[in-house]
Design goal:
Shape: globular
Largest sheet: 6 strands, mixed
Structural class: alpha/beta
Distance between the termini: 17 Å
Amino acid sequence: MAGIDEGLPFHPLRIAVLTVSDTRDEESDKSGALLVERLTTAGHSFVGKAIVPDDVDSIRAQIGAWADQVDVIISTGGTGFAPRDVTPEAIKPLCRREMDGFAVLFHQASHGTVGLSTLQSRAFAGQIGDTFIFCLPGSTGACRDGWDLVLKDELDSRYRPCSLAGQVPRLKDLCA
């Protein structure tokens, strides 16, 4: 049966949070703050947080600065259909693989809270080198759904039958 095996050790992942927004700052970035709170409460290692404008080059520069230093990047914002929403256009070309199942599960979870409005999200995930990246919408509710209903368990090394933590090179032998 799927779930957390409390008999196994927890191996924290190194996670960074990126907020993509032209209007948010540290004080008004509730979505980024929620993700930081959730990942640290779960026991993961918080590596850093940044806010960049909805600009392809700015997004790519920050992702590039973190990609070899962290196991996971979670971004929030820029995944909708507004003219300045360019997170998928900035990040997808950097991915060597996309994780199609994440978008499916995120939309299922999101449908339960926002109904058909989930169609307006271009949430996605992939892998840049060996770093996993999850791109969530900018709303606090979407970040809550993404973490609580999908990422919390998938990033927990004790989750069975398997966890994404087992795909992180430094944990492969520990989380097989």
